[in-house]
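hiii, so i know i said id send this last week but things got crazy w the move. better late than never?? heres the sequnce for the chain we talked about at the cafe, plus the structure i predicted for it. fair warning i was half asleep when i ran it
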Amino acid sequence: MTTRDVVFPPNRHALYERDRYSPAVRSNGFLFVSGQVGSRENGSPEPDLRGQVRLAFQNLNAILEAAGITFDDVVDVTVFMVDPQSQFETMWEVVPEFWGAAPYPNITAVGVTWLNGFQFEIKVIAKLPEGAAG
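okay and structure toks below
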């Protein structure tokens, strides 16, 4: 088996170790980022919904930065939302702060019943620069 080329952001290592997953894996020219939530450094959810979405994007951006890329390199986005019918517009007010300019990446939005105490999660696939590891 090939050793996974894992990308870790600064901090948050205890969260990944506790829950036994990698924050991101480089493979075949892409970066596959695990779902990021609006967790504080101690792993607890940010209570304010807008703040939780911002923090999820900040956590995502820390991983992208650790891999030497930005959100501009993201090609595929999946977001998971608890109760999207009542919270979608509130969540989506925050997205333009991080989304950048057109053309935008593709997106799939999924309504779920449980996110371990969180209301929003985002996972992405990003294209790595030519010659990058993975």
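btw Helices lie at 13-19, 49-66, 84-92, 96-99. thought thatd interest u
miss u guys!!
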